[in-house]
Amino acid sequence: MGSCRISTGEKGAKSTKHDESCVIIDVLRASSIIVTALSHGVKEILTLTSITDALKLKKKRYTTVGERKGAKLPGFDLGNSPVELLNATQNNPIKKIAITTSNLTRVLAHLETAYICSSLNLTAVSKLLQGKKINIVAAGGMHGEVEDLGIALALMMKLKGIPLQKGLIKKMITQSLAARHLTSIGYVDDVRFVTQIDKYTVVPIYKKGFVTCFKK
Question: What is the Cα–Cα distance from 132 to 4, expressed in whole angstroms?
Fold first, then answer.
């Protein structure tokens, strides 16, 4: 019989037991850009903790995605913005991404494998992991972890068959300190985009540095 628990940050990721499936949530915005990318033709996402290592991959035709403190990194093709990514894919198809972010890529570095969840693919993740033992990790960051814990709670409730109103999920995102910070530096469109609950059906899976679509 399945069971699930919620943990936070790097410590939470490290606490994943051998018989548990790990789910990572960084809804604003790394989880969301990964889900969006894989839903729009991207086949492979390489996650890195080093800015320098990510930039080197431009030579291998990776589209570079990077942020620190929410802001796009100098020299990178895109910031950590699902809206910016969608605009970019309208002009040119993107197949490979190298991404480095303040929180998610750092947390993933402690894991062999993990599923990636956002508000955008909440139901898809819950359906895939039904009946399993799960460690749901809210990545959090410098502006707290309220929004990630909100999605973690929503996922846990879905796994238990308990409905949670979409309006409440949206409020947990938009009223968080992280959302306020992103709005203040010009990313209000991303905050709005991420409130689209269950927009996509893909489930990203991370394995040793690479993220691809999970396939049964």
Answer: 8
Peptide bond into 180 cis (omega under 30): no
Among 93, 95, 99, which residue's Cα sits nearest to residue 77?
99
**Side chain identity at residue 65, one-letter code:** V
Residue 189 near residue 82 (C-beta atoms within 8 A) = no
> What are the contacts of 195-198 at 24+ separation with CB within 8 A?
195/119, 195/170, 196/119, 196/120, 197/119, 197/120, 197/122, 197/166, 197/169, 197/170, 198/119, 198/120, 198/121, 198/122, 198/123, 198/124
Question: What's 173's DSSP letter?
Answer: H
pLDDT tens digits in sequence order for the chain, 216 residues long: 579 999 999 999 999 999 999 999 999 999 999 999 999 999 999 999 999 999 999 999 999 999 999 999 999 999 999 999 999 999 899 999 999 999 999 999 999 999 999 999 999 999 999 999 999 999 999 999 999 999 999 999 999 999 889 999 999 999 999 999 999 999 999 999 999 999 999 999 999 999 999 987
Residues 37 and 159: their CA atoms lie apart, in Å, by 25
Question: Exposure of 75 by Cβ count < 10 A (0-12 exposed, 13-18 middle, 19+ buried)?
Answer: exposed
* Contact (Cβ atoms closer than 8 angstroms) between residue 22 and residue 135: yes
Q: Pull the structure tokens for residue 74.
A: 């100098």
- Spell out the domains of the chain, with CATH numbers in brackets: 3-205 (3.90.1560.10)
